[in-house]
Structure formats: structure tokens, C-alpha cells
């Protein structure tokens, strides 16, 4: 395994291309820690935003006009404002209004840290789009299918969970795929509130080693691999759920 670090060390000495993350253990660990944080942000926000989308689409058809209005206002607000502004709003605005404790040095210690605020803000941002995507899928389910479920004694909630949502998911998966890929790329905005994700770690490395070009290449390849992996998983999921003649 020493062959790879030695090769990149020699590459630096002979060509000047300084990929420190591949031969310097300290930079390597910083890069891996950033990658782990990016994966944590991506997986958590994807799961939470999917839950928001499924629940929001159900509430959009609620009998109560107030509930429907609250969901619609949420969708409009979070779809029409930049995600970076939303992150700042939650971290600097809402976070400053919440009560906080103190550490051993008497400094303010918020109960919700920057990572948790990034997850909340990004989940709400992507969840607003997911609600509309799920809604389009729900509207594509034939009314006769819903009526058949009700005739079998399903309540509105059970019909949504066991009949409507599974069928709607098959229709809206391509659009959902695009939104989740965008969400993965949007996790880089967490850099703005000092969340130590991949971009943050890479920026620290090139600031110290002055190897901006090399680290930008590493960054491009990293996100290319992550997005490619997510797209592959989504396509496999889409293929597994496909029903011949339905939704196509």
C-alpha cells in the first residue's frame, strides 16, 4: 500500500503536481473526515426530505383548508428562496433566538450545532420540492384505484400508505432522482456555516499547501463519484419498482 503514496510523492518531485491527500497522512485524514461528513449530510437530508415530501403530499389533500394552506405556504417559501439564505436564516437567525447553555469557559454553547442546522435547512429546502414531486405522482394514480381501496375498507391514511404512495412513487421516481442529485450537490453550501464537509476540508488543505488546482481536481472527481453512485442506486430502485405498462 506504500506504492501509491510513493508514486504521488515522486509525481510531486518530478512534475510539481502536489496531491498531498494521497501521500500526506494528515491531509488524507482531513479529506476522509470531510467525505464522511458529506455522506452524513447527504444520507440524512435525503431521508428526511423524502419523509417531508410523502407527509406533505398527504397533507395537501387534507380536508382542512388551514392544513392545506400551511403546506402550500411552506412549499412557496422554501422553493422561492435560495438555500444559502435558508441556512443562514436558521443558523444565524433562529439559532440566535433559541436558549443556549455555557461551556466550561463560559462561552455560549447552542443546543443545536452547525451540522444539525445544516441538516434541518437542507431537508426543509429539498422537502418542499419533494412535496410537489410526490403530489404529481399522487395525481397520476387512477381514481378507480383509490375508490377500490376505499371499497375494501381502507381508511384515507391506510389507502395513501399502502396503495396510493407506492404507485405514485413509480411515477415520480425520475423527477425525484433529479431533486436528490441536486440535494447532494447542495450539501456544499454547509461550508458557509463552517460544517467540516468535503469542500471545507479541501479548502483548508489547499490554503496550507498552495495546491489549488490539484485539490480542485480531487473535489470534482469526489463529487462526480458520489453523484454517479447516487444515480446508480436510484436507477436500480426505479428498475426494481417498475411495473410493465404502468407509469410509462
Automatic annotation (TrEMBL):
One of the GO BP terms on file: amino acid transport
Superkingdom as given in the UniProt entry: Bacteria
Function in brief: Part of the binding-protein-dependent transport system for glutamine; probably responsible for the translocation of the substrate across the membrane.
Cell compartment(s), UniProt: Cell inner membrane; Cell membrane
Family according to the record: Belongs to the binding-protein-dependent transport system permease family. HisMQ subfamily.
Major localization class: membrane
Keywords of this entry: Amino-acid transport, Cell membrane, Membrane, Transmembrane, Transmembrane helix, Transport
A cellular-component GO term for this protein: ATP-binding cassette (ABC) transporter complex
Molecular function terms from GO: transmembrane transporter activity
TM spans (from-to): 35-59, 71-97, 117-138, 215-234
Residue ranges constituting the ABC transmembrane type-1 domain according to the UniProt record: 35-231
Membrane topology qualifier: Multi-pass membrane protein
Pfam families: BPD_transp_1
Record-given protein name: Amino acid ABC transporter permease
